[in-house]
Sequence to fold (471 residues):
Amino acid sequence: MTTHPMTLCPWCSLPALLILAGCAQAPTHAPLPPAAPAAWITAATSATAGQADADALLTPELRDLLARAEAANRDLAAAGLRLKQARIQAQLGGLRFTPSAGLSHSASRPVEPQSSTRFVDVGGVSVPVTSQQGWSRSYGASIGIGWEWDVWDRLAQGRAAAAAQSEAAQADLATARAQLRQQVAERYWTLRLLAAQRPLLARQRELAEDILQRVRLRVQEGKLLPIEVDRAAASLQQTQVRLTDLDADTLLQRQQLALLLDEVLPGPQLAAESPGGELPALPALTLPAPAEVLARRPELQRARAQVDAALARLRVSQAQRYPSLSFSAGLSTGGGSASDWLAQPLLSLAANLVVPLIDWQRLDLQQDNARTELELAALQLRDQIARSLAEVEGLLVENQRLRGQQAANQLRLREATQAARQAALRHELGTISRADWLQLEVARLEAEVGALQLQLRERVQRVQLVRAFAQ
Fold:
């Protein structure tokens, strides 16, 4: 047995839907972000990005650390799981059909037992027979499928919003990876520069101890004032404090590196921490154009994806104001026995037209909320663009400052080296005391320590520039 409970022809609803479509608002567009400047304010631009800048920082040991960090870092793993979730949500939003299947069983009997009497003919005599009414059971099965006609692109915009969220999660993963690489590189170069400073500071301490002993003798001989002993002792104390700070900083950097690598404390012992070996020089800085930098920064890609998702959700909220038309088909059967299932099948076809205009207050609030979300996403995109430009400009300013400090330190180191060499010759000739020569030697070592500290700042800043350029 087949029935058709459909009471509304789907094509009969088209005139009403088309009339309502005339009341639809114009398509909503996302606010345009500000245009990128043509050139950097602080320095001249180059047509191509300085890929050599990133490669110059990657020593074999640093490459190994980066690979270990990307394989074990918890933040990066969490970002990957969020991306997986976003992709699953996008796949769920792309499902067009909603199948269903079910089995049912029901049993009932009267609250008060009821009896019925019937007469049976026995030998020509009617004999009354009384029976009690018991349980009544029924079984059923059904299968069906539903599909909504996306007249106003509501479902399509929902899928677009889910796809944009997936792109945002992909950008989050890229951001987490870039931040991880920056942090690992900074810890690596800090450990390497700290190791390079150790022999210089140890030599300074030895010379400071020697100077203190000789100053004491000269004070006892009456050749120097007693205040010179305090000055020599303060210089020795300062050197000892710097060595203690260097040991503490080395341990802290190893612990931070252990967290990034998801390893046990106190962290890995790097071969670069052993003293000796000259640091490789960095190539000249080359800059990509501002528009190129903004186009490939993952933070901006995420902000743009958030704007696209908010715009799609706004269009969904607008489409929810108009009727939705859905279709369903189902096949069901049932009965008190298995033979009834084949004898009483039921095929149903239905169309459902939902007109949500009566809930206009809720729809207005939902649309206002979606529009506010779009404005907030657009504002965050503009803010991210401004912050990205300011970050690069700030790093370029610091780069110029560093260039000036390095030039000044080179001049100081050159003068201190020449003065220490002359003092050594005069000490051999006996024209100056050993303590005076040692003080000039300490000054030369101090200039070398300053040069190493500037090299550390240069490498950390270059790592930050590589990160800012999204190389």
In short: Confidence is low (pLDDT under 50) at residues 1-27, 44-52. The chain is about 60% helix and 15% strand. The longest strand covers residues 136-149. The longest helix spans residues 360-429.
